[in-house]
Amino acid sequence: xxxxxxxxxxxPSPPPAWQPRTDPAPLLPDPxxxxxxxxxxxxxxxxxxxxxxxxxxxxxxxxxxxxxxxTKQGRLAVxxxxxxxxxxxxxxxxxxxxxxxxxxxxxxxxxAVARGLDPVQALTLLRGDWHTGYxxxxxxxxxxxTPLATQLPHAVGLAHAARLKGDDVVALxxxxxxxxxxxxxxxxxxxxxxxxxxxxxxxQNNGFAIxxxxxxxxxAPSLAHKAVGYGMPGRLVDGNDAVAVHEVLxxxxxxxxxxxxxxxxxxxxxRVDAHTNADDATRYRGDAEVETWRGHDPxxxxxxxxxxxxxxxxxxxxxxRQDAEVFAAALRDGMNQDPVLDPMDLFAHVYAEPxxxxxxxxxxxxxxxxxxxxxxxxxxx
Amino acid sequence: xxTVALKPATMAQALTRALRxxxxxxxxxxxxxxxxxxxxxxxxxxxxxxxEFGEDRCTDTPLAEAxxxxxxxxxxxxxxxxxxEMQFDxxxxxxxxxxxxxxxxxxxxxxxxxxxxxTIRVPYGGGIxxxxxxxxxxxxxxxxxxxxxxxxxxxxxxxxxxxRAAIASDDPVVVLEPKRLYWSKDTWNPEEPQPVEPIGRxxxxxxxxxxTLITYGPSxxxxxxxxxxxxxxxxxxxxxxxxxxxxxDDETVAASVRRTGRAxxxxxxxxxxxxxxEIAARVTERCFHxxxxxxxxxxxxxxPYPPPMxxxxxxxxxxxxxxxxxxxxxxAEN
Lengths: 381, 334
Fold this sequence. Notes:
The complex is a heterodimer of chains A (381) and B (334).
Chain A: H1 47-72, H2 86-94, E1 101-103, H3 109-114, H4 119-122, H5 124-127, H6 136-139, H7 152-165, E2 171-176, H8 183-195, E3 199-205, E4 208-209, E5 212-213, H9 226-230, E6 234-238, H10 242-257, E7 263-268, H11 287-294, H12 298-308, H13 314-336, H14 356-375
Parallel strand pairs in A: 1-2, 2-3, 3-7, 6-7
Antiparallel strand pairs in A: 4-5
Chain B: E1 7-10, H1 11-25, E2 29-33, H2 49-53, E3 58-60, H3 65-77, E4 81-85, H4 96-103, H5 106-109, E5 119-124, H6 139-143, E6 149-151, H7 156-168, E7 173-178, E8 185-188, E9 203-206, E10 211-215, H8 219-230, E11 237-241, E12 244-246, H9 250-260, E13 263-270, H10 275-287, E14 296-300, H11 311-314, H12 318-326
Parallel strand pairs in B: 2-3, 2-4, 4-5, 5-7, 6-7, 10-11, 10-13, 13-14
Antiparallel strand pairs in B: 1-8, 6-12, 9-11
């Protein structure tokens, strides 16, 4: 019987009651990015934390300049610098406990180093080697991830698995503003919220995806606002204020560990250097913009606070700089040693056991290398 | 030795049994995918698992294939052994970036420190009257990706054995399940499942002397039928069921072709850039002096998978296979 035929008997009724599945108000980011330095709240910041952050930032900046210099010397194939973003990199590492996991993108080797990874190991892939250079389980740092945002679902899965096993482990995943346009960003945040996985997503909004500015990337009020659509809190923070970033991330990690679920943190920062050493930033942005951001430098902000409060003197600053120089010298020395590469290794880890076909190909390469060796009179392999 | 009465079982039931046994044997095995929980999967392969093991072990995920596989990567990084279901062949494509850039490469790029023991189940192939996007033969994509193992069962017993072997493997395995064989029945004793064979072994499904049909998955029963029909023509055809596309069992295949001297590769996937080209090349490289004729291919046409009303024209059938066998230069023997 159609509706027309049963018209006399049909009594329209309202649909089942509807209500929002969660109250969006507490999920909304504050109207202004959270700041500590330069505000009244700075006076309450722990001096030990300020000094620690400062030392790490200075060392981080030196790491960035040293790595960039190594590309010019041909010791690194490529380096995506995080100069200007050190506050985010360092705070991400310091917000985590030892048992937690960090999921870095290719621009986040500094975060991995701040977490304790040997810098030469952290730069293995960028050096042009075939492997990540470190055992991810040793420092609980996932392999550097190049395909944008694809490491985010890994962080969600790992955090979910930890929770299923009853471990109070949190995963912190790092992504850039460009990465938020990728489908994997969306899927990761959605899965994290549905599963209430203990994950913190840190978006470093550094203004550019290589050359493309944020305005061409999104029409959202802010990237932090995207959190609301997934049913998780979004937080905005001044990404060059190391104390503020540390505060927001630490709170998000604590929230996740306590079973509160994921948080999306957008840190507003700026990529002072070009995308990589192979990029020419003058093609898409002016010096004035860069200079404006240099006026809001994460190290200068922190140093200003420390000296204003008398928490560091010139000798103290010099000691920090010296420590960074020692660190850079060790990195230089490490990178100046030629890595030992065995082409046979290319076949060793494709599978647990090489397939018969790979064994044949390995033998072929062996023969080619032997022939090469012979034709050079055995001088080198 | 006691004799156990064999009862008919379907391939889908054998797959369910394999999942259940693997989950019971190893608490790190987690099944996840779309509709795999309450519903038991659109093909009912995960039927009863959520009820028996709980929704944390057999999880209905959000509808997002990259998310399913991507989160499975993270779960495997933390020591779990995820078994993900891609609902249909063509719906697995959104997960390809995770599959190719991470699942297939993670062991290698971490020098073995972080293997990913993930099983990816993909119902594939045509012949079930599915509308578009429900009948693709996507095996060539998987085969072309180093780091993946690719298996496909043709019998009820192999469905159990290969899926158990896939879940037990420390490497990622794509298990291509021939949709139209889900309801195929065989005498199989679910109380005493077959021992799990290692991945990478082909099997001679039917011995013969005249020529070898090299095939896998949904085309195996078709080839066996063709071999029966060929007897009337006086041909005694051998049928090799590859079972594993990666690793490829060159030894079994080449031994068969050396015996028969002739070979036809049969699959549903398109011929151009399909598995048959690789297989024909491998056979030719190894058996050239034993070959009486070029290795031929019988494949689906190089067209988007046709609608259900026309799919019978696309799928390799007995006649197309016998036509190819007829072109194996038999006159040279006279």
